Amino acid sequence: CTKVGFIKVQAEILSVNINTPSGKRFNVTTLYRVGNLGTDNFDEVRKFLTGLASKKKLDKHILIGDLNFPELKWPDTSTSVNLHKSFIDMITDEFGHSQL
Fold first, then answer.
1. Could you give phi then psi for residue 95, rounded to 5 degrees?
2. What is the pLDDT of residues 35-73, one digit of tens each?
3. Helix 82-89 × helix 38-56 angle, to 10°
């Protein structure tokens, strides 16, 4: 377990805030989601990302990493696994992210 900012997370997460001279606020987050930890891990990652989004008032957030969703098909994000679908829904619907 790693203590990250304000939440204890069973994942490897590193977030860096970047403030530009023009006042823009960016965040780059790397995430290694351990694939066999299931919904408990997903809930912890969701708490971290939700907290980051709500507390930092970011103009942009870039999330990169190994999400360990082997059944998820990129870039159309199709999957038959509920956990994978929940993660994609969180990223796209709650946070407005898109696959690059």
1. -110, -10
2. 777 777 788 888 888 888 777 688 888 888 888 888 888
3. 0
